[in-house]
Amino acid sequence: MSSSTAPVSSAPTEAVPTWAIKLLYDGECPLCVREVNFLQTRDAGRGLVEFVDIADDAYDPAAHGNIAFETAMGRIHAVLPDGTIIQNVEVFRRVYEALGMGWVYALTTVPVIGAIADWVYGLWADWRLRLTGRADLATLVAARNQRLACTPEGRCQVD
After folding, report:
1. Are 56 and 82 in contact (CB under 8 A)?
2. DSSP code string of 103-137
3. CB neighbour class for 112 (10 Å; exposed up to 12, middle 13-18, buried from 19)
4. Which backbone phi and psi does 81 adopt, to 5 degrees?
5. ∠ CA 63-82-104 to the nearest 5 degrees?
6. 34-55, pLDDT tens digit by residue?
7. What mean pLDDT, rounded, does the chain reach?
8. Is the separation of the CB atoms in 73 and 140 below 8 Å?
9. For the segment 82-129, what is each residue's pLDDT rounded down to a tens digit?
10. What is the pTM of this model?
11. Half-sphere exposure at residue 73, Cβ-oriented, CA atoms within 13 angstroms
12. What angle do CA 151, 155, 159 make, to 5 degrees?
C-alpha cells in the first residue's frame, strides 16, 4: 500500500485577507457611524470592507497597519490587503469602489477636483470633533491612555 503525503512546510502561512479594504473609523462620531451603517448595508455581509472602530479600547494599531489611535482620529485611514495605508478622500473613493459605487467619488480622480476634495475633507477633519460635540483630540487621547492604564479590577497606574 502506497501512501502519499503533501510536504510539510515549516514557513509560516500568512492568511490572505478576504476584504478589499479595511476602513478605520471613529465609532463615537455620530456622522461617522451613520456613514459606516450605510456602507455596511451596501456591503450586505459580503465582507468586502472590514470595519474597524478605532474608538474601541481594544483597538490595536499593530493589527491595523500600525496606525496609532491619535493618527487615526486625526484623519480617516484605511489599509489595503497588501498593507498599503491610504487616507483622506482616497479612503472614501476606494471603499465606494469596493462596494460597486465608485461613481460617487469618480470626480475626485480629476487632479484639481481631487485636491479641492482633499482640502474640504481636511477642514472637516480639523473641525469634526467640535462639530459633533466632542472633546479635542489631545483630551480624547489622554482619556484613552488613562483608561488603558487601568486594570479590569479598576486599579489604575499613576504616571
Report:
1. no
2. GGGGGGGSHHHHHHHHHHHHHHHHHHHHHTT---H
3. exposed
4. -55, -30
5. 100
6. 999 999 999 999 999 999 999 9
7. 89
8. yes
9. 999 999 999 999 999 999 999 999 999 999 999 999 999 999 999 999
10. 0.84
11. 22
12. 95
Q: What is the DSSP letter of 146?
A: H
CB atoms within 10 A of CB 80: 16
Question: What one-letter code names the amino acid at 118?
Answer: D
Residue 53: half-sphere exposure toward Cβ, Cα within 13 Å: 14
What percent of the chain shows pLDDT beyond 90?
81
DSSP codes joined into one string, 21-61: EEEEE-TT-HHHHHHHHHHHHHHTTS-SEEEEETTSTT--G
Q: Which of 61, 36, 60 is nearest to 49 (CA)?
A: 36
- Angle at which helix 111-131 crosses helix 89-98, to 10 degrees, equals 100
H-run or E-run covering 77:
strand 77-79
Would you state the cell numbers that stand for residue 114, as one nine-digit string?
A: 481631487
pLDDT of residue 156: 67
The answer to whether residues 25 and 54 touch, using CB atoms and an 8 Å cutoff, is yes
